[in-house]
Amino acid sequence: MKQSTWPGRSDGSRFKSLPIKHQFHQSEFKSTSKFWSTSSASRQIRSSDGDFSKLPFDILTKIAASFTLPNLQAASLVCKSWSEGLRPLREAMLFLKWGKRFKHGRGGVRPNLNKALESFLKGAARGSTLAMVDAGLLYWEIGDKDKAIALYEKAAKLGDRSGQCNLGLAYLQAEPSKRKEAVKWLFQASKSGHVRAQYQFALCLHQGSGVNCNLQEAARWYLKAAEGGYVRAMYNVALCYSVGEGLAQSHRLARKWMKRAADRGHSKAQFEHGLGLFSVCYC
């Protein structure tokens, strides 16, 4: 999926933001999925006096749905009950592995998107959110966006932050777009530390897309994504520091983040960092 960034110089100004009318509050966004409810399952957990081996299988598999293979293997060693309960998710990891081989032509196999999708769907059917997201990506690439969104939704509700991010991006690109829903899921993934979601959530705050425009909050999330290594966020942080939008103006910090983005291959950052070096050398 394509990502938008701030307008370039050809647009007249790199910053096209609306005045702040309302203060953004995190309370605007609330998680829609809570595993720990007052259901009979949770009462059963409490009555077990801390014996996690008695955790109901449906709760166990929801908790472990986004686990990677090493985490699943470690959890399976807790007790025989967990080992049996997590067997479908361990099987899903094998299908996920083969799906990636078929998708990218690795491990001595030729690329085959049909077989890749088949493998991902088998992993998804066993409860793995990782397989759901990969199957969703393939569906999106071949143009079957409804099936992609359905898989992203399932993964997102199970707490998979990549699924939440992809669902948010999909809602932004939907026709008509579902911007408020998009922002909700991007915020969920951002809180979990997903840097791409943090960057896209910051863009929504900056542009007032699906949420009230808030430059300070936008800059804060740009900075989080930049510190997490997201290159586009590094470039936007440099712009924020350069003109003092959302962050206190600092040419030193602007140069620092512009150089970081340039060093990591961001073409606009390379151009602007080069201009800055040129002006210093020939002033």
UniProtKB/TrEMBL annotation:
Gene3D superfamilies registered for this protein in UniProt: 1.20.1280.50, Tetratricopeptide repeat domain (1.25.40.10)
SUPFAM superfamilies, sorted: F-box domain (SSF81383), HCP-like (SSF81901)
Which keywords fit this entry according to its UniProt record? TPR repeat
- List the source organism: Populus deltoides (Eastern poplar)
Looking up InterPro entries in the UniProt record yields: F-box-like_dom_sf, F-box_dom, F-box_motif, Sel1-like, TPR-like_helical_dom_sf, TPR_rpt
Q: Origin, by domain of life?
A: Eukaryota
Protein name, UniProt field: F-box domain-containing protein
PROSITE patterns (UniProt xref): TPR
Q: Does the keyword Cell membrane apply?
A: no
The chain's coiled-coil residues are: none
Where the TPR repeats fall, as residue ranges, is: 129-162
Cited SMART domains? SEL1
The residues covered by the F-box domain are 52-83
